[in-house]
Amino acid sequence: MLVVMELIGLNYTFGVHDGLKMFIYYTDSSNVLCLIVSGLFVVFMLPALSKGRTSGFVSTYMMQHYKGSSEMPRWITMIRYISTCCLMLTFLVVLFVLGPKKGYADQLLKGVHPIDHVLAPVLSLLSFLFLEISEPLPKKAPVYAIIPTLIYAVILIAMNAAGLADGPYFFLRVREQSLVRSVLWTMAILVGNYLISWLIMKGYNRMIPIPWRKYSK
Question: What pLDDT is recorded for position 209?
Fold first, then answer.
């Protein structure tokens, strides 16, 4: 479902934002990340979960690679976690920052915003917490989760300072406000990103059966 929805969103935003310029938006970048990660999840995990009942080159190769195991590879769990954290940051920034400023109708109903601002984040979170339980996430997981946001913020602030980009969010426009204000906004969002990621990590680890949790300690 995530792959299908993200393909619909990508087709729309790619046209509206003139191709690769879409990546200037954190929403579009995080949703493309979700598309890539969800696609990898489907390719790697469905053949393994089917336990040999699939056919075709890709599924046969993956079955041989995982030898029929239904265990979730650690790296898939981690990138699904990071992707989900990025999407939830998008969702909450829209809900508490952009929605009140630009209007909820614009941020939740316009274009494909029902997908990239609401449905994809919520579905990704629900799937990750309830359908993809494997081994516990490490305590450093929230640090890994904020890396994409940090990279995005550094690049966009630098581009705004150099006059190569305009926003696209008001807190990135360093030429229209003080650098200090932009940095403070960025720090606030990164702290929020870390808190979101920490809560998702705690929720995910809580969903793991108690014997697994005790063993992992």
Answer: 77
Q: Say whether pTM exceeds 0.70.
A: yes
Residue found by looking up tokens 């913020």 in the block? 153
133-155 in b/e form (b: 16+ CB < 10 A) is bbebbeeebbebbbebbeebbee
The CB density around residue 52, as the number of other CB atoms within 10 Å, is: 12
Q: Average pLDDT over the chain, rounded to whole?
A: 86
- The residue segments making up the domain with residue 106 are 2-216
Sequence-distant (6+) residues with CB within 8 A of 58 are 43, 47
Full 3-state SS string of 172-206: HCCCCCCHHHHHHHHHHHHHHHHHHHHHHHHHHHH
How many domains does the chain fold into?
A: 1
CB 44 within 8 A of CB 62: yes
CB neighbourhood size of 183 (10 A)? 14
Q: What are 59's two structure tokens? A: 């599924």
Give the CA-trace dihedral at 101, 103, 104, 109, to 10 degrees.
Answer: -130
